[in-house]
């Protein structure tokens, strides 16, 4: 009652309550309440005072707090109630238009991979014999050798960068605001990005006078003392099962032994029987239906596993997670507040019949997705939990790296933040690289679009992703990319070509 109705926050809370009512968490709570209160037919809504006492004594109060906190981390900032619905997804009209164009480009790529007579269908029912074969080798798909010679990755990072470079705001002449004319980078979109003072305030826990796990040359206390104390605090956070406290804690890095449990707590993943059943249903869908993107997944997993010694041992996990992900229509929920309408296909011969429609989540760059799943394999060895963790990381963070938006954690803003930091604080280096045809973003883009997966050693990468979870932001990727250039500035001032800079 005390909330400002014009802030849009009450509407956000109402949407979160509605989402939780339809979740497995709600059914688990209702089932346990019926047992504990000996009221087998009762509904939660009618329990009133009884449910309050039950929540406090059973521990469910903390679980619900974590669930609401988790949803608040995913939902966008509240819009004004009078704003059109599409503004919740993206407030800038030219960005919304670019989102649609990007998905049309993706669909075109999918279609040209098919034979001409198959252009209208991207989904096929597998024969029964093939279904049995796939089921038998589900845990050994890395041994399969399908003919993938005609397929290539749908979207390389350089292709996506070209799309972003052509993005313009038609409301300004030449796509620029007057205050934006001094920006000499590749991204010519007048978005507001943070400067160093704002970043220092937002990322204050990364200050040099604060201990960081994995870095022991800047702390004010002996590193072994900091690590021991940090582990003790982490164990206490886990015992309390407080999602908000866990998110604050990981800003200084996670101890290796606690990381899997802390990330699951932050992402509100508990791997209940309902969750395991949902994963099995997705697996069944993979076995029954063959999608066009399956071949792209097979090819990219093979390439990743063969080129990276870190990840080849997880090849089977990569297939399982990504094939299931391509069928997961629950991922589509985030389209209601994040991006353009996703593409869909139809079972062959059923064009236009909605009951035979197969939706495609926004999997623009499967190679980037593979590199997003692979590091998680070091933490989670149960396929259903690994899948849930990846899906939650996707809907919170990774989708922003593969879609066009004005969000501060979106890839457009990250590119602009990177270029602005470099141009402002290392102008000589920026101008030198620009003059020799080695625009810095052409080098750093692939780092950011893949969240540095494949470019950092896994232990370093997980320490970086600790901070992404801790701050609920991807902006740290742009800061790190600029820092790498600062670290190599002396060497880079000597290069004379893009290849040498690389």
Automatic annotation (TrEMBL):
Q: List the PROSITE patterns hit by this protein, alphabetically.
A: TBC_RABGAP
**Could you tell me which Gene3D superfamilies the record lists for this protein?**
Ypt/Rab-GAP domain of gyp1p, domain 3
Which InterPro entries does the entry link to? Rab-GAP-TBC_dom, Rab-GAP_TBC_sf, TBC1D19
Check the record and name the SMART domains matching this protein. TBC
SUPFAM superfamilies, sorted: Ypt/Rab-GAP domain of gyp1p
Q: Where is the Rab-GAP TBC domain?
A: 253-472
Output the superkingdom of the source species. Answer: Eukaryota
Family matches, as Pfam families:
RabGAP-TBC
Q: What is this protein called?
A: TBC19 protein
Query: What organism does this protein naturally occur in?
Result: Herpetotheres cachinnans (Laughing falcon)
